[in-house]
């Protein structure tokens, strides 16, 4: 039985004893914020201010993201919230539990790469929703990085295509990280756009020694934060193997019933034995669901999972 088939079987079994949905996938914004200040998520404790010299705060337009298919429909939101809580818990534990993380100060230990074998699997949808769920944590923050240089969907969805970001950091070592990391009006969530520079060799920059330095700097931006990077599809670029080695964890999105099994297996082989690997099934409808809503199953572990 293939790894995809095993995950689907577990997802279907779990649906029979599905716990009741709780909470919302997207934090509600406070409407009574003081003039000139960004709104904050309700019921969220105040965090220490992030050290950013950015001149503006990014407004997360929930309605716009939903219209563009980057957030679930409202009637599916509560269920997806529960599933993303299940998804993020092992990511946080692996990053900050000293017994699991090994050396929690090692470069890449607090970074998570979100990818897929091929385009169109739902990795950007997963990145954005996972980032919003992580932002609800009381003890941790999240920095969402658009690392998909060929197709920067995160930057496009958030209206940040003209902002400096990752490419600028890669090409200019003198550029301060805090000048391009943008705070948002969702407390605990910051964004690093794809950036504006890089030229014809932009994709190759992902596999450069400078990329390792940038990841380390981003992790230092908030020692209690998780750096979540939406990366190019693994089989689309030759830099994928080097890029995956920079992260402590990799989340690979697989579109149920669409992703070719051979492509998934090949992508797992490319990721190699370094990072912990989790598998997320996208659009896996629960048994007995009349809506056929998006389903997510996270099969967390290491990259030595069964590849048969």
Q: Could you explain the architecture of this structure?
A:
The chain has 308 residues and is of the alpha/beta class. β6 (249-255), α10 (261-271) and β7 form a beta-alpha-beta unit. It has an eight-stranded mixed sheet with strand order 3-4-2-5-1-6-7-8, with helices on both faces. Helix content is 32%, strand content 14%. Residues 14-50, 287-294 and 302-308 have low confidence and may be disordered. It has a domain at 50-246: 3-Layer(aba) Sandwich (Rossmann fold). The chain has helices at residues 3-15, 62-67, 74-96, 98-101, 123-134, 153-157, 166-171, 209-221, 240-244, 261-271, and strands spanning 111-116, 141-146, 182-183, 189-192, 225-230, 249-255, 276-282, 298-302.
């Amino acid at each position: 039985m293939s790894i995809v088939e095993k995950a689907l079987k577990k997802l279907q079994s779990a649906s029979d004893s599905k716990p009741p949905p709780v909470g919302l996938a997207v934090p509600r914004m406070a409407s009574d914020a003081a003039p000139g200040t960004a709104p904050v998520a309700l019921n969220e404790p105040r965090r220490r201010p992030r050290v950013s010299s950015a001149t503006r705060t990014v407004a997360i337009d929930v309605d716009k993201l939903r219209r563009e298919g980057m957030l679930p429909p409202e009637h599916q939101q509560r269920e997806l919230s529960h599933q993303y809580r299940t998804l993020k818990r092992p990511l946080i534990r692996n990053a900050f539990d000293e017994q699991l993380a090994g050396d929690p100060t090692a470069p890449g230990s607090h970074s998570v790469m979100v990818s897929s074998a091929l385009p169109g699997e739902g990795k950007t949808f997963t990145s954005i929703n996972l980032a919003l769920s992580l932002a609800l944590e009381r003890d941790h923050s999240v920095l969402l990085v658009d690392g998909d240089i060929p197709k920067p969907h995160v930057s496009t969805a958030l209206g940040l295509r003209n902002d400096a970001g990752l490419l600028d950091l890669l090409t200019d070592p003198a550029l301060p990280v805090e000048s391009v990391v943008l705070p948002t009006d969702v407390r605990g969530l910051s964004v690093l756009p794809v950036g504006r520079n890089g030229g014809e060799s932009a994709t190759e920059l992902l596999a450069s020694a400078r990329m390792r330095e940038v990841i380390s700097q981003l992790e230092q931006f908030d020692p209690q934060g998780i750096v979540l990077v939406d990366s190019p599809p693994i089989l689309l670029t030759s830099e994928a193997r080097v890029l995956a080695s920079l992260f402590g964890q990799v989340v690979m999105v697989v579109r149920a019933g669409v992703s070719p099994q051979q492509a998934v297996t090949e992508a797992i082989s490319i990721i190699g034995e370094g990072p912990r690997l989790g598998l997320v099934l996208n659009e896996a409808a629960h048994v007995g669901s009349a809506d056929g809503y998006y389903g997510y199953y996270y099969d967390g572990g290491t990259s030595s999972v069964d590849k048969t």
